[in-house]
Amino acid sequence: MADTQYDIVIVGGGLIGASLACALKSTGLAIALVEAVSFRSGTQPSYDEKMLSLAPASCRILDGIGAWRAIKSHGVTPIEHIYVSDRGNWGKTRLSASEFGIPALGYVVSARVVGLSLVRRIADTHAAELYCPAKVTAVETDTDGVSVSVDTEGSAVRIRCRLVILADGGTSTTRGMVGIEASAKDYGQTAILCTVTSASPRPGTAFERFTSTGPLAMLPTTGDRYAVVWTAKTDDVERILCCSAEEFLERLQVRFGDWLGQLTSPSRRRPYALKLIQVKHPVGRRALVIGNAAHTIHPVAAQGFNLGLRDVAVLAEVLATHLKHDRDIGRKEVLNNYRDRRRHDIRNTTRFTDALIRIFANERPHMVVGRNIVLNALNHLPDAKSALMKRAMGLNGNLPRLIRGLSLID
User: Fold this and answer.
1) pTM for this entry
2) CA–CA gap between residue 128 and residue 137 (Å, rounded)
3) Are the CB atoms for 301 and 227 separated by under 8 Å?
4) Handedness of CA 234, 268, 306, 135 (dihedral sign)
5) Are 53 and 108 a contacting pair, CB within 8 Å?
6) Among 205, 52, 216, residue whose Cα is nearest residue 118
7) Choosing a second label site near 233 at 20 to 30 A (CA), which of 5, 33, 198, 324?
């Protein structure tokens, strides 16, 4: 069996893998993108109807890789205000885009729109050769390169490359093939996603409400609709999923309150089990993991996809920079450069989201008082609020070129 030659093989054609393929188009690298589920089947799990909250930094990245215009053309909803509250307590914080001199704190759009826009971009620009539907059956690395064995619709193909990048999600089946281990912590929580109609909508306003079972987010979408991200204890999920629409709305209304008036017309409810998945070392021999395959975090504060897109921006820049000096982008020094540049952001974002869950789940009196004091104090501490929001928006630290509005290559 003759080997097919590429510079890079990306395993996983979800949102992060497809974004990376688009980002690397300008480098001239030959790229293969391997995805298990057909993009035409309508069952691509990454391209479903769940709503994403895109941070400003993510919008800049998507613009830099040529996908933002198509995404916007399908309709995005700006978040101009965010209300954060602690259910049953007095702590509240209000955030407004105008405070920070920007048009929006983020934008709400479905994963389906983002995914299909990326796939069209790949097809239109020939950014990558697609192997789809296809399954990776083995990955073997050596000093000079990587051999990736792929089963595509019953035919065996072996791909030879200099670097394999794993972007196949938190349940990655290929991490172990390259010797990268991951740890997992079950939060004992499940996110229930759906949309509802508000009788008293607040255009451009999102809500993050902390409750005893986990955060409850309400994100504005089109018209009077809001996307619900209800974090519930896993033991209670079946009852919430199976109850009638009327009972579901009653439970949701009690937990959320009357901020949006009466809630009606719920869509189909979909559960997503919540775990913290981390790799200690994202770099292997001529192998690298990014996105959820490297760090699956709690959806509180909507950081997951945004964190993965920052992986894409930094990795694309590192590879483009090293290409100026050496075609072998799979060398250990190159991959360690990426690892070092991403370590701080990944660690801090993971700790931030994990800490929020632990702090707001703790009902000890001193913790309740402390967190509510902090929430209220933020309204009167503009510097602290600004620092917090810069982190949440992905606009702090040493920003990669794509976030700064620059091309990868000078």
Assistant:
1) 0.95
2) 20
3) no
4) positive
5) yes
6) 52
7) 198
Reported as a single tens digit per residue, the pLDDT across 339-387 is: 999 999 999 999 999 999 988 887 888 888 988 998 888 888 888 889 8
Tokens at residue 175, please? 């991490």
Kindly give, in sequence order, each residue whose CB lies less than 8 Å from that of residue 239, ignoring residues fewer than 6 positions away. Answer: none
Q: What's the CA gap between 202 and 198, in Å, rounded?
A: 9
| Residue entry with tokens 């792929």 | 150
Query: What domains sit in the chain, N to C, each tagged with a CATH number?
Result: 4-76+109-184+275-360 (3.50.50.60)
Non-local CB neighbours of 70 within 8 Å, separated by 6+ positions: 117, 120, 121
